[in-house]
Design a protein that fits this description.
- The chain contains four helices and no strands.
- It is elongated, with a radius of gyration of 15 Å.
- Helix 1 (5-29) packs across helix 4 (99-120) and helix 2 runs antiparallel to helix 3 (64-91).
- With 124 residues, the protein is mostly helical.
Length: 124
């Protein structure tokens, strides 16, 4: 049994959000560059993550503080994940369709910890 069930809820909501975001990315990848496709899909994912984080994962928020800090969390996540996507696709010359999956593995722990601080105000 998990002592902090928010981790489980974060993984479930993140899985749903990730699946939707990834499907959007793959669809857009057929029409536009991977950079633009990733940015658009990421914005959709941000919206989903905010709603699920507030209503399902942490079931709380810090009022204006959440609204002001959450964009910073997503900005840092985006910068990190976009860098991973770029390195994967351009530097390592790997399949761009797999790049978001690699980015998720790298950014997941960082995003959970930062989101918990924003929504709950502490790590415990």
């Amino acid at each position: 049994m998990l002592k902090d069930r928010s981790i489980f809820r974060f993984l479930v909501s993140g899985g749903v959000s990730t699946a939707v975001t990834y499907l959007v990315y793959l669809a857009l990848l057929q029409m536009i560059s991977y950079q633009v496709a990733y940015a658009v899909a990421f914005l959709i994912g941000i919206s989903m993550n905010y709603l699920m984080g507030r209503l399902f994962v942490f079931k709380t928020h810090q009022g204006v503080r959440t609204a002001l800090m959450l964009p910073l969390v997503y900005f840092l996540q985006y910068c990190t994940s976009a860098s991973v996507v770029w390195i994967w696709a351009d530097i390592l010359r790997q399949n761009p369709a797999l790049a978001p999956a690699v980015a998720i593995v790298i950014t997941l722990p960082m995003t959970y910890l930062m989101s918990k601080i924003v929504f709950v105000g502490r790590l415990r």
